[in-house]
Design goal:
It is a single chain. The chain is mainly α. The protein has a single domain, classed as Glycosyltransferase, CATH 1.50.10. The relative contact order is 0.13. The structure holds alpha-D-glucopyranose.
C-alpha cells in the first residue's frame, strides 16, 4: 500500500475516540466537529465502513429536539477549549454548541452508499441516519429561511466553517462588542497567533455567542434579532447539493421527499439572483444590514458543487476560477491574492484548505474534466509534499495550523482512491 494512504489511515484512527474522531491530535480542537466528522466518515469509508457509519451516528446523537445538528459536540467536558460546554450552556443528549455548520452529511452519505456494498444491518442503520438528516434539513428550511426564499441564513461566522474569512469583515464591523467582555482564548496558545484569527474577531465571536445564549437559542427569535445574519453563497451551495442528494437517498429508502423537492425548486430559481453579471461571480448577502458582500472568496465557487442547471453561468464561473490564483504555486487561496484583505498565513484569509479544493474538484468533474483533474493532482501533491496539515500557503505550500489534521487525511483518501 502507498505510504501516504497508510499515513492518512493512521491519522484518522489515531485521532479516533469512542465513536467519534477529533479534528486533530493536538489540543486545538478537543471535541467532535460537525462537518469535520462528515469528511472524516468519507475517509473511513475507504477502509472501515463501520467506523464511517459510527462517526455519522455519533454526530447525529447530538441532534437537538428541533432538528439542529450542532457545530460542536463536547463528549469530553473536561477540556481547556474556549468556548467550552459551560460557555455555550446547551445541548440535547450531548453537551454542545448552540449553532450549526455546513450541512454536508447527505452528500457524503450518498457517496459512501454509492461505492460500498451495504449489509442488511447497515441498511437499517443508514435508514435511521437518513431520517435524522432529513429532520435537520427541515430545520434549516423552517428556521433559517422563515420567508421561504430558497436561501438559508447563518447567524454566526463559525456556522460557515470559514470563521475569519474576509467575507465577514463588513457585517462583523457592525457588531458592537459587549462591554467588559471576559473570556480566555486557548487556540492561540497552541498555534502561532499570526496564523489564527485576531483578538478583535474573537471579541465579536463571543459577543454574538453570548447574545444567542441570552436568547436561549430560540430559533425564531435569533433569526429576527441576531447580531449577524448572512446569506452565504458557499453555505447555500452546499445545502442545495445536499438537498439534491437527500432526495435521492429518500427515494432509495422509500421515504417522502416532496417537501425537499419543492425547496430545491425554489432555491434553483432564486439563487441566480445572487449572480453578479458584471463580475461573473456569485456574491453573498448581509441580510441584517441589507448589503451585498462582494469579497472574492474561493467559497463563492462552491456553487459549482451544487450543479446548477445553467451552462452559461457555469462557464463564466470556470473562466473566472481559472484566474483566482493564477500567479500562485498552489490551488486555491481562500481569498483572491490581489484582494486587499488577503493574508498569506492567517487562517481563512488566504491559505489553501483541502476541503475547499475538494468541493471545487467535485463540482468541476462533470463540467471541465481536465481542469478538475489538475486541481486533484495539485492537491494530492501538496499533501504528499508538505504533510496532512490544516492549511497551507498558496505561495510555497508552507504547512500551517494543526498537524495530523483529520479532514486533510480523509479527503486525501477520497482524492487518491475515488476512481476518477
Ligand atoms: C475551525 C474551522 C472549522 C472547523 C473547526 C474544526 O473552527 O474554521 O471549519 O470545523 O476548526 O476543525
Amino acid at each position: 500500500m502507498n505510504k501516504f494512504i497508510k499515513d492518512a489511515q493512521k491519522i484518522l484512527t489515531g485521532n479516533r475516540k469512542r465513536g467519534y474522531t477529533l479534528p486533530t491530535n493536538n489540543k486545538l480542537y478537543p471535541a467532535q466537529w460537525n462537518w469535520d466528522s462528515a469528511f472524516i466518515a468519507l475517509g473511513y469509508s475507504y477502509f472501515n465502513l463501520n467506523f464511517a457509519l459510527k462517526e455519522i451516528k455519533t454526530l447525529l446523537d447530538g441532534q437537538w429536539k428541533d432538528g439542529m445538528v450542532p457545530h460542536i459536540l463536547f463528549h469530553n467536558t473536561d477540556t481547556n477549549y474556549y468556548p467550552n460546554h459551560t460557555a455555550w450552556n446547551c445541548g440535547n443528549k450531548i453537551r454542545s454548541s448552540g449553532i450549526t455548520q455546513p450541512p454536508i452529511l447527505a452528500s457524503i452519505l450518498k457517496q459512501i452508499i454509492d461505492k460500498n456494498k451495504i449489509t442488511k444491518k447497515q441498511k437499517l442503520e443508514i435508514k435511521k441516519i437518513i431520517i435524522k438528516i432529513k429532520k435537520s434539513h427541515e430545520w434549516f428550511i423552517q428556521y433559517r429561511d422563515p420567508n421561504k426564499t430558497g436561501l438559508v441564513s447563518i447567524l454566526h461566522p463559525w456556522e460557515s466553517g470559514y470563521d475569519n474569512s474576509s467575507l465577514w469583515d463588513e457585517p462583523m464591523n457592525k457588531v458592537i462588542i459587549e462591554k467588559n467582555i471576559q473570556y480566555k482564548r486557548a487556540d492561540n496558545k497552541v498555534i502561532n497567533p499570526e496564523h489564527r484569527p485576531l483578538n478583535i474577531d474573537y471579541d465579536r465571536y463571543v459577543t454574538i455567542k453570548n447574545d444567542l445564549r441570552k436568547k436561549k437559542y430560540d430559533p425564531k427569535k435569533i433569526f429576527r434579532t441576531g447580531l449577524f445574519n448572512v446569506i452565504d453563497i458557499g453555505f447555500n451551495s452546499i445545502f442545495l447539493k445536499a438537498n439534491k442528494d437527500l432526495i435521492i437517498l429518500l427515494n432509495k429508502f422509500n421515504l417522502n421527499s416532496s417537501k425537499i423537492k419543492n425547496y430545491v425548486k425554489i432555491t434553483e430559481r432564486n439563487i441566480l439572483k445572487f449572480f453578479d453579471k458584471k463580475k461573473g461571480t456569485f456574491f453573498s448577502f448581509d441580510l441584517r444590514n441589507k448589503k451585498k458582500i462582494l469579497v472574492p472568496s474561493i467559497t463563492n465557487y462552491l456553487i459549482l458543487f451544487a450543479d446548477i442547471n445553467n451552462r452559461k453561468i457555469n462557464n463564466v464561473l470556470i473562466k473566472n476560477l481559472k484566474k483566482h490564483n493564477l500567479k500562485e504555486k498552489y490551488f486555491f487561496s481562500s481569498i483572491k491574492p490581489n484582494h486587499k484583505s488577503f493574508e498569506e498565513k492567517r487562517y481563512w484569509r488566504g491559505p489553501v484548505w483541502i476541503n475547499c479544493n475538494w468541493f471545487i474538484y467535485k463540482g468541476l468533474k462533470n463540467k471541465d474534466g481536465k481542469y478538475s483533474k489538475k486541481i486533484k493532482q495539485s492537491t494530492i501533491k501538496l499533501v504528499e509534499k508538505k504533510g496532512f496539515h490544516e492549511y497551507y500557503s498558496c505561495k510555497n505550500g508552507k504547512p500551517m495550523g494543526a498537524n495530523n489534521f483529520s479532514w486533510s487525511a480523509a479527503l486525501y483518501l477520497d482524492l487518491k482512491l475515488s476512481n476518477y
